Amino acid sequence: MARIVVIGAGLGAMATAARLAVAGHRVTVYERGETYGGSVGRFERAGFVFDTGPDLLHLPAVYRDVFVKTGREPLESCVGMAQTDPASRHFFPDGTSVSLPNASRAGVVSALEEALGAGLGERWGEFMNRARDAWDRTRRPLLEEPLRPDPQVLGRDPYPSVRQKRLLRRDRQADTLAEVAAWELADPRLAALLESYALAYGLDPRDAPASAAVLPYLEQTFGSWCVAGGTRELARALHERCLARRVEFVFGAEVVSVVEKDGRAAGVELADGTAVEADSVVAAVPPERLSALLGGRAAYGSPPEAAHGTPEAGPGPVRAGRTTVFLALDGAREPGAVHRSVVHSAHREAELREVFDGQGPADPAGEGLAPTVFVSRPDDPALRPDDGHEAVLLTAAAPVHAAYDWGSPDLAGLWADRMVAAAATAIPGLADRIRWREVRTPRDTRAVTGAAGGAVPPPSLAGRSGRFLAPSNTTGLPGLYAAGGWAHPGGGLAHAGMSGALVAGLIVEGDGFRGSQ
Questions:
Q1: How far apart are CA 16 and CA 225, in angstroms?
Q2: What's the pLDDT score for residue 306?
Q3: Which residues does the chain have with pLDDT short of 70?
Q4: What is the C-alpha to C-alpha distance for residues 376 and 56, in angstroms, rounded to an integer?
Q5: What integer pLDDT is reported at residue 164 of this predicted model?
Q6: What is the rounded CA–CA span in Å between residue 126 and residue 124?
Q7: Which residue from 118, 334, 453, 495 lies 20 to 30 Å from 23 (Cα-Cα)?
Q8: Which residues contact 326 (CB under 8 A, 6 or more apart)?
Q9: How many alpha carbons lie under 13 Å from residue 28 in its C-beta half-sphere?
Q10: Is 325 left (phi over 0), alpha (psi -120 to 50) or beta?
Q11: Residue 50, Cβ neighbours under 10 Å: how many?
């Protein structure tokens, strides 16, 4: 029985802890906050309840596997889950809209064909076939195996871009998601649809690799699921599973350093001076904090421990954070309302410049500057005081660069105003229904997670010379492992859960572990 210390109590950390405990190890989780879940939190006020993190789950098989491997009760006996149908409704600047069915690629093609025009659904379907090829080529090495020593294995883009012939000029092939949208989809609404999947994860579609095509493929193939009572209930169920497996949690306990002895991790030191010995340490924290725990030195060395997309391996992608608006509404949810709507910006290029290019806040009086807004309206009685009210969640990709000072309440209010104005397209009579609102910015995210600027971790993506790969689960210090959304295979509920299986496998089976079979 080895002694394992886990730093952080997010979903990736708890998935790791539960698997290690079942393998016979003594696991203690140290969390600087007062509760579990990390970014998967909950905000409650006057009977209105909101998720502070993702409100939909993709690839639920990841957590089904965690619960199957760590106990007798399956996931669905611990939390209520249901597919959202339609998966999403999209509102475009030209006034058209489309509802996309859940987990039905053929249904999506039909819906796009009917709503946007003949040939456009078929064009999207052909794109999805190419996205499937990218998924098939990278699913195992990108998601189910530890990061390979040679970054070029995943540094090449697996998306089979269409070669486009041009008169008197060289043929061209898309290298970024935005180029796929412009050259292969060649319709502003389809382009906005595709690029919104990057924005949802805080990625710039102009920089994200073409392989980001797998993001809509995952949703449209495996579906979108909501958790009864909110995604926070998934965190609760996983915490209870850890307790059932005798994982110990210590809250309000900040780890300030990883203790090294004889060239390997040998424990941690807490802020109160307490030293905790361990045979292995798992850090589910952002890379910046992991470096601080090692006294400021790089956490990752030469391959296979090399970090991709980090300062140690060259410039990584420009990431965004997330601004969230909690809306308490008077009046019942109207018939025909859907769980997830996306209101696409009328000025997408201006939005991308403001979020990713270091441009300061635009003129508050400027016209048409509303960002792409993701509107969440779960039809769940547990999230509202009664059927005469509604709890609505608005999110948008938000800048984390130096030109933005999220400490300014005026700036938070400006963004909230923009987002509410955009959301009115999806919610009839919104302005007159608002009882109160609360705003959360990247500054709040940073306070909870410690991530630089309050950025959110995106899923790992192949291509672009490995710049979009998260750091390895092993580090330059033997006995120290990395889990959660900031480690391989990256961010998002499903990907963070996958990191738990990888880290547990590496600790239990050693360096010879090659992933699940």
A1: 23
A2: 44
A3: 151, 166-168, 301-315, 362-368, 516-517
A4: 9
A5: 79
A6: 5
A7: 495
A8: 43, 45, 48, 50, 391, 392, 393, 437, 438, 439, 440
A9: 15
A10: beta
A11: 25
At residue 472, the 3 state secondary structure works out as: coil
Distances (CA, A) of 169 to 165, 172, 174, 512: 8, 9, 15, 49
Does an H or E element contain 375, and which?
strand 373-376
Terminal C-alpha separation, the chain:
25
2, 5, 10, 16: CA torsion to nearest 10: -20
Gyration radius from the chain CA atoms: 22
Taken in order 168, 170, 176, 180, is the CA torsion positive or negative? positive
Q: How far apart are CA 45 and CA 57, in angstroms?
A: 24
pLDDT (0 to 100) of residue 312: 42
Nearest to 259 by CA among 79, 7, 72: 7
Strand partners, 127: none
Cα distances from 464 to residues 152, 177, 208, 305, in angstroms, run 10, 11, 8, 19
Q: For position 170, what pLDDT does the model report?
A: 78
Number of neighbours of residue 260 by Cβ within 10 angstroms: 17
* Torsion, Cα of 108, 132, 455, 444 (10° steps): 40
Tokens standing for residue 210:
């073409």
Query: 304: cis peptide before it, omega within 30°?
Result: yes
Q: What is the pLDDT at residue 274?
A: 97
- Beta carbons of 347 and 368 less than 8 angstroms apart: yes
Please state the pTM of the whole predicted model: 0.94
- For residue 467, count other CB atoms closer than 10 A to its CB: 20
Per-residue tokens: 351: 């939005």
Please give the helix or strand (H or E) that residue 164 lies within, else none: strand 164-166
